[in-house]
Design a protein that fits this description.
Elements (H helix, E strand, L loop, with lengths): L3 H11 L26 E2 L2 E4 L25 H12 L1 E7 L2 E6 L10 E8 L7 E6 L4 E7 L6 E8 L1 H8 L3 H20 L7 E2 L4 H8 L14 E7 L12 E2 L2 E2 L11 H9 L26 H7 L14 H9 L8 H4 L6 E7 L8 E4 L4 H10 L7 E2 L7 E5 L3 H7 L11 E8 L1 H6 L3 H22 L3 E5 L4 H8 L6 E10 L8 E3 L4
Antiparallel strand pairs: 1-12, 2-7, 3-4, 3-20, 5-6, 5-8, 6-7, 7-11, 8-10, 9-10, 13-14, 13-17, 14-16, 15-16, 17-19, 18-19
The chain binds flavin mononucleotide (FMN).
The site of flavin mononucleotide (FMN) has 19 residues, from helix 4 and strand 18.
């Protein structure tokens, strides 16, 4: 077996986009053969879930306040799943029709599958259910196990959905999406008063509980990669293993034109448990209040990624500061789900923000990161404090729109934004320690992106994740010379310009 650390680092290196050469991907796309975004479990019993969103009136600024937990019922679980994994709209252009969900996804390909495990929920049988977002229903996949009261959500990725379009780089996108999905869960749980907790289970234990290791069931169809299980109560009890299984997963792409074996290699190399949950501690909150007056459920359900920005609007300083504060403990429910020491740090290319000179900025999310980045970056960066409370530092005053666009695969969203974020991860050391950290760094970056996307939506602005960037060109601009730090995700914020040719249709008839 090859060394997992070396395989992980080699995968990251070979899936970099370069200014003169993109990472290996398909030479041609057969659009008619796009993998089905909905996997159906044939031969399973389907139970429709109630669609009504509970606690719909809670205002965005109050979302994160403590509240008594709702009882687990089909209605409360249906409400949660709508807010974190459900369809939020259908879009139509000519004869094409596609759905959007509560969380964004690279290429709208949605590699993440959601599972629900229930024990002792009145009105719902015990067992493992596949969540079917298309119909907002549960497909019962397994049952018959030790009585274990509780509710868990489990996640698996289907890398082929992304690899079909993006080739070798696809596994990065699966993991960034996973981060968005987990953050979406943290926000959706808050109005229900639930405190979801990630379980530090061995990957084989996750796969066994979700049944994605049942090789014979997946014969001839695309494999699923176990990711993580979350207990919806604030405790760490794992769900049971089931004795009786039913159903067969549907085939998503009958005629795959390419194979990318390196994805299986990196999936194997990065299988590992989450680090244990650190002890609870009082963290000093960088509290910058949101001025949004929208209900939280509306923010979550109307969230969209901007496809274009106007290139002119100036972001008010209060909104900018609120967006940055959401990236720290106390600023978002996400950081209770992910209480680990921050290892992904935003570098900002500010174009149009009130009171902030255009330029290159750093927002180190820990003091250690500030010292580390200062040491790794060139001496010419001036590290001038740019906020009275938040650790925002100006590195260089400069117009950076063209740089942002070039670095983000020449995409206008990076230059027409008010600000574009480059998420830089502490990289070589955590991966040397545990190659599974490679996945977790991408999750953390996806979570940061999700905080920005929802806070922007609440404030009448909009965000877009940018998975396409020229890795080493970013490092060159930042003066980062080795793999101590690596860029893992970009994110742009601005005022969207909508495409009037698209029609919007309701999520569920
Ligand atoms: C990890 C990730 C990478 C993305 N990369 C890009 C990108 O490079 N360019 C872009 O225009 N949109 C990008 N997007 C936005 C997606 O295209 C968008 O989420 C998807 O089309 C679904 O639309 P929605 O977010 O409005 O639901 C990305 C989204 C994610 C989550």
């Amino acid at each position: 077996m090859t060394n997992p650390i070396a395989s992980t680092l080699a995968y990251h290196a070979r899936t970099k986009h370069h200014l003169g050469r993109y990472a290996a991907g398909p030479g041609a796309l057969d659009w008619a053969a796009q993998p089905d975004p909905f996997r159906r479990w044939q031969g399973t019993q389907a139970t429709p879930l109630p669609r009504e969103v509970m606690a719909a009136e809670i205002a965005w600024p109050q979302l994160d306040q403590p509240r008594p937990p709702q009882d687990f019922t089909p209605a409360s679980l249906g409400s949660l799943l709508r807010l974190c994994a459900g369809i939020t709209a259908w879009k139509q252009y000519g004869s094409s029709r596609w759905s959007l969900r509560a969380h964004p996804s690279s290429g709208n390909l949605h590699p993440t599958e959601t599972w629900l495990i229930s024990g002792g929920v009145p009105g719902l049988e015990d067992g493992l259910f596949h969540y079917q977002p298309h119909d907002h229903s549960l497909e019962r996949r397994a049952w018959d196990g030790p009585a274990t009261p509780g509710v868990w959500l489990g996640y698996s990725s289907i890398p082929w959905r992304e690899a079909w379009k993006y080739g070798e780089r696809a596994f990065r996108y699966c993991q960034l999406d996973m981060g968005h999905v987990l953050a979406a869960l943290a926000y959706a749980a808050a109005p229900h008063g639930w405190q979801p907790r990630l379980l530090a289970l061995d990957p084989a234990a996750v796969a066994a509980r979700l049944g994605v290791d049942r090789g014979a069931d997946f014969d001839g169809v695309e494999a699923e990669e176990a990711e993580v299980i979350v207990n919806l109560q604030a405790d760490s009890t794992p769900p049971p293993i089931w004795n009786h299984w039913a159903g067969k997963p549907g085939l998503l792409d009958p005629k795959p034109m390419y194979q990318w074996p390196v994805i299986e290699e990196v999936a194997a190399a990065t299988r590992g448990a989450l680090p244990p949950r650190p002890p609870e501690q009082e963290t000093e909150s960088k509290h910058v209040p949101s001025t949004s007056t929208l209900p939280a459920s509306q923010v979550i359900l109307q969230r969209r990624s901007a496809q274009a920005f106007d290139g002119a609007s100036v972001m008010p300083n209060a909104i900018f500061r609120r967006l940055l504060a959401a990236l720290f403990p106390g600023g978002s429910p996400v950081w209770r789900l992910w209480p680990h020491a921050p290892r992904v740090h935003p570098i900002l290319l500010v174009h149009r923000v009130e009171g902030i000179k255009p330029g290159l900025y750093a927002l180190p999310r820990s003091e250690a990161a500030m010292a580390g980045l200062k040491q790794a970056m060139p001496q010419v960066f001036n590290w001038t404090p740019a906020d009275p409370e938040l650790p925002l530092y100006q590195l260089l005053a400069t117009k950076a729109e063209r740089t942002a666009r070039t670095l983000s695969c020449h995409q206008d969203i990076a230059s027409h934004s008010a600000a574009t974020f480059l998420f830089v991860a502490e990289f070589a050391a955590p991966i040397q320690d545990n190659p599974a950290a490679w996945r977790h760094l991408h999750w953390e970056a996806g979570m940061l992106g999700h905080c920005l996307t929802l806070e922007a939506e609440a404030a009448g602005w909009r965000g877009t994740g940018i998975g396409c960037f020229f890795d080493d060109a970013v490092h060159e601009v930042l003066g980062l010379e080795d793999t101590r730090y690596q860029v893992v995700y970009h994110f742009a914020l601005g005022i969207p310009v909508d495409d009037p040719r698209l029609t919007t249709l309701p999520a569920y008839a």
